[in-house]
Amino acid sequence: MVSDQINHYISSLIKSRNPLLTEMEEYARIHDVPIMDIISMEAMLQILSLAGTTKVLEIGTAIGYSAMRMAERLPDCEIVSVERDKTRYEIAKEYVSMSDLEKRITLIHGDALETIDQIKALHSFDCLFIDAAKGQYKRFFELYSPLVEKGGLIISDNVLFKGIVASEGKVAKGLRTMVVNLRSYNEMLMSNEQYDTTFYPIGDGIAISKKK
């Protein structure tokens, strides 16, 4: 993983966000809401911009921060985002309503393992962004990767989980199942012949998979 010193330096170079996004970052910090770290977010936004992404399916809305960052950076992009936690979903709705991005962000309340039929009705996507329950990544991939268009991207956040996934040391009991599942997911990505995958050791680890 990249050192804290390098992360701090890169973070210091990133432009300030607008006041609403800064407020969301502070809310997430105070309330321990897991939003994407700033360096990983900037990297993902650059990749989506270069890819000309126009329709994203996000699994894991949290408070709507990633969805709003994507909509702001990509003016021609629509985002559909699924969140199972009712409280976070309502907070996301409030934040989105306070922005000028509401027409391009669709929020869905529900468990992504159960909303497949609802999302299928919205047709295909050119990016699937997975940032939800770490132990369910493989299931999310199985359910929603068929909705990704040829040449589209699947972006998986937290695939190294604080470096623990790559560690050869003993894993704490409460994390073992999740770590085993993430390792299995990462191996599946690399062996899947329908995708070209690259791992980036920034933030909590990102996997970028392009559909052939």
From TrEMBL:
Record-linked InterPro entries: Cation-dep_OMT, SAM-dependent_MTases_sf, SAM_O-MeTrfase, TrmR_methyltr
PROSITE patterns, per database record: SAM_OMT_I (PS51682)
Binding positions (S-adenosyl-L-methionine): 36, 66, 83, 111-112, 131
Keywords: Magnesium, Metal-binding, Methyltransferase, S-adenosyl-L-methionine, Transferase, tRNA processing
Any one Gene Ontology molecular-function term assigned to this protein's record: magnesium ion binding
Catalyzed chemical reaction(s): 5-hydroxyuridine(34) in tRNA + S-adenosyl-L-methionine = 5-methoxyuridine(34) in tRNA + S-adenosyl-L-homocysteine + H(+)
GO biological process: tRNA methylation
Top-level taxon of origin: Bacteria
Binding site for Mg(2+): 131, 157-158
Transmembrane segments: none
EC number(s) per entry: 2.1.1.-
Name of the top EC class for this enzyme: transferase
Subunit structure: Homodimer.
Function of the molecule: Catalyzes the methylation of 5-hydroxyuridine (ho5U) to form 5-methoxyuridine (mo5U) at position 34 in tRNAs.
Similarity remark: Belongs to the class I-like SAM-binding methyltransferase superfamily. Cation-dependent O-methyltransferase family.
PANTHER family noted in UniProt: CAFFEOYL-COA O-METHYLTRANSFERASE 3-RELATED (PTHR10509:SF14), O-METHYLTRANSFERASE-RELATED (PTHR10509)
Protein name per UniProt: tRNA 5-hydroxyuridine methyltransferase
Source taxonomy: Bacteria, Bacillati, Bacillota, Bacilli, Bacillales
